[in-house]
Specification:
The chain is an alpha+beta fold. The protein has helices at 57-62, 67-79, 108-111, 114-127, 135-153, 159-168; strands at residues 27-31, 38-44, 47-53, 86-89, 95-99.
Amino acid sequence: PRGRCAGVRRARPRPRRRGSGAGRAPRITALAGGLGNRAFRVETVAGAFVLRLNAPPGEALLLGVDRRIEIASQRLAAGIGLAPRVIAVSPDHAFQVCEFVAGVTADAPALATPSGMARLGASLRELRTLRPPAAAAADLASLLGVREALRATGSAWPAELDTLLAWYTPQ
């Protein structure tokens, strides 16, 4: 079913009508940005999509990314129009496909304007209406475990993460 993408399924070839774009190769354009992922705009006869090649699991973990929570959160945000719809996710989370939404990246200068701040505030108000994925609490416990393991080995742990953890940890 559309919008339910536990894994990537091979699409069945559909008969094409003359003039439907059959035989036209997709156009692929690299997109800028991202710390560890690479993203590409893929234009096909079916529409425009974003193919994201995710950072390897070890690198994602170092960035504090849990792909299960990320995808669940994106699907929630897409449900209220704040994020692109997730089309497919590979079972190992190595890549994902989302709808392409044309727009401008919200960088610091754009957000620093009165209209940028108003748009950001409206988006944050909408996001606050969503219930976080259930896996988020387990992820927090996992992160606390990583912090303790690093401290036990004498490895560095950024103090900023303690501040963030204190904000998220129930008192």
